[in-house]
């Protein structure tokens, strides 16, 4: 979970910076930076879980 948290912080910073640079609006930058990384972080968490299952399956087949 620590990896997911640090990823969220990094993503928030990048998303805010890009949105603010494109719009010049702190509110829009903040909204984009809050919504997009939040959704992406949840997707990333589940992506990691699926990836771990695939790796475990591969290891199980290698030892069979």
How would you describe this protein?
- Residues 1-52 form the DUF2061 domain.
- Pfam families: DUF2061.
- By secondary structure, the protein is mostly helical.
- It has one domain (2-63).
- Helices cover 94% and strands 0% of the residues.
- The protein contains two helices and no strands.
- The chain has helices at 2-23, 26-63.
- It is rod-shaped and about 60 Å long.
Q: How many E-type strands? A: 0
Distance between the termini: 31 Å
Major sheet summary line: none
Helix content: over 70%
Q: Please give the radius of gyration in angstroms.
A: 17 Å
Helical segment count: 2
What best-fitting shape do the alpha-carbon axes yield?
Answer: rod-shaped
How does the helix and strand content classify structurally?
A: mainly alpha
Quote the beta fraction: under 5%
Order of helices and strands: HH
Pfam families: DUF2061
InterPro entries: DUF2061_membrane
Describe this structure in a few short sentences.
This protein is mostly helical.
Helices, strands, pairings?
Elements: H1 2-23, H2 26-63
Helix pairs in contact: 1-2
List keywords for this structure.
single chain, 64 residues, mainly alpha, 2 helices, 0% strand, rod-shaped
